């Protein structure tokens, strides 16, 4: 019985308190559920803007960030290039986009 209690307690800690996944980073973004650092260049828990350029993050709120680890909208793309959204739509085959 003692082993069962220990296993359940350990499972609770792993499932409830450690729900962050970081790929290529030892420092998943704060409040994130999923964080990918493609160049593995984040050297601290709060990476500088240049280090975030290659990051993809999904926060616990459901907000998704590309090029930022702190998205404030459902989808935020930071191209880090002045006057450029970083978003490109191609191969539209109709003139009546809906």
Q: If you had to describe this structure to a student in words, what would you say it looks like?
A:
Helix content is 20%, strand content 20%. The protein has helices at 2-17, 49-52; strands at residues 21-23, 32-37, 55-59, 64-66, 75-77. The model has no long low-confidence stretch (mean pLDDT 79).
In brief, what are we looking at here?
The protein is an alpha/beta fold and 98 residues long. The protein is built from two helices and five strands; from the N terminus they run H-E-E-H-E-E-E.
The total count of strands amounts to 5
- Secondary-structure-derived class: alpha/beta
Question: How far is the N terminus from the C terminus?
Answer: 61 Å
The proportion of residues in beta strands is 15-25%
What gyration radius follows from the Cα positions, in whole Å?
Answer: 19 Å
State the major sheet. 5 strands, mixed
What is the element string, with H for helices and E for strands? HEEHEEE
- State the low-pLDDT regions, or none: none
Number of helices: 2
Range of helix content: 10-25%
- Estimate the mean pLDDT confidence: 79
Spatial sequence of strands, sheet with the most strands: 1-2-3-4-5
Looking at how many chains there are and whether they match, the oligomeric state comes to: single chain
Shape: elongated
